[in-house]
Write a structure and sequence with these properties.
By secondary structure, this protein is mainly α. About 60% of the residues lie in helices and about 0% in strands. The protein has one domain: Up-down Bundle (AhpD-like), CATH 1.20.1290.10.
Length: about 170
């Protein structure tokens, strides 16, 4: 498979920087980095974006996340590896990524679960992060961008120990 064209964010002046700034702003809202990586990976799975899924899976690995958590993101409801806060963020991600699947796109239950675990600033950061990854996913999937080892240059390097890794290791 070949890309349909060069990536539009590399062609349209300022597009890449604008999307990166959106992600950077979301990252400053106080949501744990690994939660953001989980959200980005889950939306990318749903949207079939190989570039973003590869990148955010590598970020989770670089953050020290165990393979079980990375491999089980798509089945987070049936896996014991995620905290209640992460589950709330993943449910919000799925609902916001699949807006047209339900008449009430974001149910009160999904929203209230997030409100229980995140401050208003963090929740706003999650909403912005979900919107941002969906934008990247749609650009990449539409133009059939291909992943590869080149994504390593874009992998963010968070702190080594994460809440999720501690959760899985039973600490």
């Amino acid at each position: 498979m070949q890309p349909r064209m060069n990536n539009p964010v590399m062609i349209v002046p300022g597009a890449l920087e604008a999307l990166q700034q959106l992600g950077s702003a979301a990252g400053k809202a106080g949501v744990p980095k690994t939660t953001l990586f989980l959200v980005e990976a889950r939306a990318s799975q749903i949207n079939g974006c190989s570039v973003c899924l590869d990148m955010h899976s590598r970020e989770l690995k670089a953050a020290g996340e165990p393979d079980e958590r990375i491999f089980m993101i798509a089945a987070w409801r049936e896996a014991p590896y995620f905290t209640d806060a992460e589950r709330a963020a993943l449910a919000l991600t799925e609902a916001a990524t699949r807006l047209a699947d339900h008449p009430d796109a974001i149910s009160d239950d999904v929203w209230e679960a997030c409100v229980r675990h995140y401050t208003e600033s963090q929740l706003a950061g999650l909403v912005v992060a979900i919107a941002g990854i969906n934008a990247f996913n749609r650009i990449n999937a539409t133009t059939r961008q291909m992943t590869g080892n080149w994504v390593n240059q874009w992998v963010r390097q968070p702190e080594a120990q994460t809440a999720g890794a501690a959760f899985v290791n039973g600490r």
